[in-house]
Amino acid sequence: MTNPTATVPADLQILFEPIEVGEVTLSNRIVMTGHGTGMAEHHLPSAQHAAYYRERARGGVGMIGMAFPQIHPSSQNVPGEVQAYDPAVVPGLRKIADAVHEYETKIVMQLGHTGRQSSSTWSERPLFAPSSIPCALNREMPKAMEIEDIDELVEAHAVSAVHAREGGFDGVEIHSGYGGYLLASFLSPFSNFREDEYGGSVANRVRFARRALEAVRDAVGRDYLVGMNMQGHDFSPGGLEVSDAKEIAALLTGTGLLDYVVVKGATYYSASQNVPDMQHPKGVWLDLAASLREVVDVPVIAVGRVTDPYAAAQVLRDGGADLIAMTRQHIADPETVTKIRENRLEDLRGCIACNQGCIDRLFKITHTTCVHNPAAGYELELGEGTLVQAPADGGRVVVVGGGPAGMKAAEVCARRGFDTVLLERRERLGGQLRLASSVAGREEIAEVIRHLEVQLEKLGVEVRTGADADHEAVRALAPDHVLVATGSAPGRRIVGNLSHGVEATGLDSERVLDTFEVLERGAAVGEEVLIVDDGEGGWKGIALALQLAEEGKRVHLSTPLPYVGAALGPFTQNKLVPRVAAAGIVRHPFSLLIAVEDEDVVLRTDGEPHRLAGIDTVILAGWHEPVTDLYFDLKPRHGSVRRIGDAVASRTMLESIHEAERVARSV
Ligand SMILES: Cc1cc2nc3c(=O)[nH]c(=O)nc-3n(C[C@H](O)[C@H](O)[C@H](O)COP(=O)(O)O)c2cc1C
Ligand code: SF4
After folding, report:
1. CA of 333 to the centre of ligand 2 (A)
2. Model-wide pTM > 0.85
């Protein structure tokens, strides 16, 4: 029999050492921790759920945490999450467990309760908390729980745990011991101001979590896997620090009732860390896990911005943890473990910690996906086994434009077996993503380009860069199908202004630049700069503003929205907006640029003209206009021409890449 880890580089072998966790043996040390998926249908597990988890089990991950089943109606009761307290979930859970158990992977179900960090929008019930103090992010006044509420919630943990066991799951994970959620809010003096037996001393603050754990253990028995998410640090004023977290971890694991712990940090006060984006360092919570591991005698799962297998292996070798989570990495690439095992690291589709496709979408009350893995969350439509090969005489596809949409389309066409040619005007592939990744702090975006470049090469796509294609050049290639992905570009008007009925004047001034001129063509920027967001509210203007401020420029940032970055996810904003303030950037909310004059630059702020003197450079950093000339030239001349990505409408890489995948599948 061949050794399944024979191809694994020596430094990575440690990731493939089996480990006993409770009564369960995991075949490797890599975990995908629980993450809400929004995939339930009317609170019940769905076929999409099963497909999502099956694909990750097939990819070889050792253990999966399923989130975000709710243990009680008072928790975040969105229809896209499972109501674990309802016995009707059991058959659906069984389908998920069966799908995962087709492979060696184990699956645990989180027992979730969001506590005060929630919203009553769906439940129309009061939120639960130790004290009547609202969460800084969600700002809804909770009810200070009475003893009978606590008793009910203790029992609720047990009821849902039994459903997991009946559904064939390998275990349960008590979710809310971390992150400021229900049990964590009792554990921490940041949110617990009670004076009864559930507040004050550590023993009192631990009482609720301990009772919940005892109830779960009583309900499922000693032979069932029971873990807990734990806090390593609150990063919140007056909250838990590492020494407090160690004391609590020792008390809870000291009960002998837990089989493993997952260590994370933060509350919604420091919400950006809840799912740390690329503003946070890699390995953000690894030190916390290592600290708690000193005092607990059960396996510790470390997590937080780990995507590199060598970094993962190093954590285990250093004794920082027993298992290592690569959670969003598995959303981005369900085959992560297989690729490591087969020593195909260049094929890994790395998570870039943008949060746009995954956690941000949960805030929009839809399901998770990934910006550069369109199949994530759409496994039934786009997952393993759904790609239809081109007919034998499928012929040639010419893709024009080597940005994310064009690259993705070329990849998919080549996978389908088309003879594929990709033409790109610039000298390098990547389009606007390459510009975006050239801005300080946004470098990880380049991973999207790197991954696609490797795939195009492996698939034998003929890539011609520096190829400024017109319709004759395209026709000379005798394509059967043409996909136009010519992208978008900033124009000399402010698109966002037009939706407010305003057309700015003076934009032909030499003082006015756009992001392409600054980032690609290196145009000189003066000492005092106004960056204009026209309502897009995303990263473009902010990232550039931060970079220029870092370079010592005096930077203004205007937006018609109530604050800069208003279109970004709340976890991203939670760190980004204070960073903008700390960088000394002068913000002009509710403002539209209406004129660039010889001396002044004029904004319309709150409906009134607002003159800014001394601005050397104005940078337009808003919505783009699609580049469509080639498409409209080709359309009447060729039978099969389609456009994709920003060439249709200027959007983000998520829409471009997902659209490219779907269109390329339909050629
Ligand atoms: C879409 C999404 C939803 C999440 N929901 C949960 C959740 O319900 N429960 C939980 O414990 N953690 C949740 N998390 C946090 C992850 O378990 C993990 O801690 C986080 O993604 C950091 O790990 P990573 O850098 O390896 O992705 C969520 C993360 C994401 C991306
Ligand atoms: S959307 Fe972004 S953060 Fe989420 S998994 Fe994909 S790359 Fe990672």
Report:
1. 10
2. yes
